[in-house]
Structures are given as C-alpha cells and as structure tokens.
C-alpha cells in the first residue's frame, strides 16, 4: 500500500538561507519505541535553526541530509510507539524535537516521549511552541547558572538582586524578563527604542535603548551594579560589562564568541570574583512542564512576533535570520 505523504520544508545541503528551503511531499514518519507521532499545530523558529543550516555547528555534529529544520513544536498525538507510557492518541502536547534531526517544518513529526509535555487548553499551540529552546534557556540561565530563585515567597530568597538582561525583546530575552520578575529582583533590560514599552510591560524595572550611548555602555539609569547579567545579544566585550558588575557579578553568556570563551577561562584560572559563564541549553522535560504551567497560570506569556503558514516558511526563516524579531516567530501547517 502507498505510504501517506505530508507537506514538509527541507534542506538538501548546507547554506542557502531562505532560498535553501525546499517544499516537498515526503512519507509521514512512524513512531519507534518511546516515540509519539504528532500532528503539528505550531512550530517556533530559533536562531540555532538557521545557524545549523549555515554549517556553524558542523564541526560538532554534522547534519544528515535531507534535513527538515526546527525543533520547537506543539500539536496532537496521532499515534504512539511501543513502550510509551504517559501519552495517548488525542493528547495535546508541547515537545522539543532532536536538535540535529529536526522535523518541525512539516505537517507531522515524531517526538521522543522524554521531551514531550502535556499542553492544557489554556495554552495555545503557538504559545506552547514558543517555549522549548527560548524558554528553557531563559529559565536555566536564571536559575541553574544565575542562582536566582523564581519565587518571591521562598524561605531562601535569591542572593542576587540586580539583573541585566540584554536583547530583552528577543525570543529568549522576553521569557527571561518575565521569569526573573517572579523572583525578588530588579531587572534592567536592553532592547531597541520600538520595544521599550513592551519590555516594560513584561516587568522590566528600567530599560535601555541599546543604540544610545548609555545603552551601549550598559549603565543602569539608577546606578545599580549588576549581580547577574543574562546576555542574549550579540557579543559585547568584557571591558563593557566589567565596570557595571557588582563585586561578585556574573555574566551568563548565551551567545559566547571566542573572546568570551577565553575571558571565561582567564576569570576561572585567576579565581576572579567576577565571572563570565558561557552556557548551552540542556533540554529537560520537567523544566518545560514548569514553563507550560506558568503560561497556564497566566504568570508568563509568549510574545509572538509573527505567524506564517508552512507554505511560506521561507518568510519566517528570513525574518529569523534578519535578527529583529520581537518575541517568537511561529510557523503553522
Ligand atoms: N546557548 C544556548 O543554548 C542558546 C539557546 C538559545 C538561544 N541562543 C542564542 O541566543 C541569541 C538570542 O536568541 P533569541 O532567540 O532571543 O534571538 P532573537 O529572537 O532573534 O533576538 C532578536 C532580538 O534581539 C534584539 N537585539 C539584537 N541585538 C541587540 C543588542 N545589541 N542589544 C539589545 N537587543 C538586541 C533585536 O532588537 P532590534 O530588532 O531592536 O534590533 C530583536 O528584538 C541567539 O544568538 C541564539 O542563537 C543560545
């Protein structure tokens, strides 16, 4: 019997940007042991998707082509593979697909049960799909690496009080601002002039336009020294961060270049009180579940930059490459 086909968008080689995406009809994948077949309702893009296409991560993990990009999805369980315990056909879910296998720019995708969580009716598919890479990175940067407790009533409140979040209008930054404000912290944020009101509405206490002289030197308008910086913008030299840090200030860098990696090494071996910590997201289902719960409770929202039909996925791709999204870019089958 002929296999059922689905519409998908794939790359046949590295490079090419939006023009490198090809619309194809391919067989609907089948779930193996511990996997779910999802009918996708929304997929969000992340800069890492086009960075992989560009070959920037090729030395670490080379791609197998053809490759259907994107990992952050929300949808409905259509079938389950052997051994799946926690999900059944018809369940609504949010899932993070394997970074290098991808699969999100399509009508159906196979996800691992281990990185899939339930999605309650209060959380729309687009809001849920925004969460995996961007939400998990913001959460882990603040809590694991920044040591911040996201609970104002905690018996052991965060020692860090002043935080700087750069690129607070981006996919990661918008979640970082909202999550940080669940804790007992003062948030200074940077973004472009057009997004200042939005970032304030997400909870930032003070906002710097990164294109002004004050924004460029990251100086807090109220003269605060930062205990923790969640750095989500393009690389900024250590000499710019250093004078703005408190005595034990820590820069958590989610976009480290070679210079930041070197600075991090030097700060570590010299036992400097001020540290630079490059980080990589570690996908964890319990963290994703926590984030979905916060969206359900209305404590965090997904700022949506734009929604694009799968048929025009290349427009969404080009927008992500452009680097000026406000929140998350969503593709819908
Ligand atoms: N380490 C990890 O595991 C990890 C995980 C997730 C993401 N990342 C990386 O983190 C970076 C941010 O990701 P994202 O999803 O948030 O990106 P994004 O959504 O594409 O960020 C775009 C936003 O950044 C703002 N922006 C750009 N340069 C800025 C600057 N110098 N100062 C302040 N705002 C600036 C833009 O504002 P304007 O439009 O006004 O310019 C835009 O609103 C990417 O490089 C991504 O690859 C790393």
Automatic annotation (TrEMBL):
Q: Which SUPFAM superfamilies match?
A: GroES-like, NAD(P)-binding Rossmann-fold domains
User: InterPro entries, alphabetically?
Assistant: ADH-like_N, Chloroplast_QOR, ER, GroES-like_sf, NAD(P)-bd_dom_sf
Q: Which GO terms describe its molecular function?
A: oxidoreductase activity
What residues does the Enoyl reductase (ER) domain cover? 16-331
- Name under which the protein is recorded: Enoyl reductase (ER) domain-containing protein
């Amino acid at each position: 019997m002929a296999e059922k086909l689905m519409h998908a968008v794939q790359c046949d080689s590295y490079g090419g940007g939006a023009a490198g995406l090809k619309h194809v009809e391919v067989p609907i994948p089948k779930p193996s042991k511990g996997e779910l077949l999802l009918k996708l309702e929304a997929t969000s893009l992340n800069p890492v998707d086009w960075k992989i296409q560009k070959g920037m991560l090729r030395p670490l993990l080379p791609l197998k082509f053809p490759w259907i990009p994107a990992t952050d999805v929300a949808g409905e369980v259509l079938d389950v593979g052997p051994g799946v315990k926690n999900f059944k056909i018809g369940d609504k879910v949010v899932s993070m697909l394997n970074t290098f296998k991808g699969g999100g720019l399509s009508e159906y995708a196979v996800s691992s049960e281990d990185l899939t969580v339930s999605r309650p009716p209060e959380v729309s598919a687009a809001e849920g799909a925004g969460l995996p890479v961007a939400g998990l990175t913001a959460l882990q940067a603040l809590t694991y690496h920044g040591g911040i407790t996201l609970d104002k009533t905690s018996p052991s409140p965060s020692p860090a009080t002043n935080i700087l979040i750069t690129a607070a209008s981006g996919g990661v930054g918008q979640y970082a601002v909202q999550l940080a404000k669940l804790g007992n912290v003062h948030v200074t944020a940077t973004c472009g002039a057009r997004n200042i009101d939005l970032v304030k509405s997400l909870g930032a206490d003070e906002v710097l336009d990164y294109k002004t002289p004050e924004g460029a030197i990251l100086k807090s308008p109220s003269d605060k020294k930062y205990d923790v910086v969640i750095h989500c913008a393009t690389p900024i030299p250590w000499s710019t961060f250093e004078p703005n840090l408190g005595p034990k200030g820590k820069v958590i860098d989610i976009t480290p270049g070679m210079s930041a990696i070197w600075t991090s090494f030097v700060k570590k071996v010299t036992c400097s009180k001020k540290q630079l910590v490059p980080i990589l997201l570690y996908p964890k289902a319990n963290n994703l579940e926590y984030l979905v719960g916060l969206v359900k409770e209305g404590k965090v929202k997904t700022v949506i930059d734009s929604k694009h039909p799968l048929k025009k996925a290349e427009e969404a791709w080009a927008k992500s490459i452009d680097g000026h999204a406000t929140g998350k870019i969503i593709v819908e089958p």
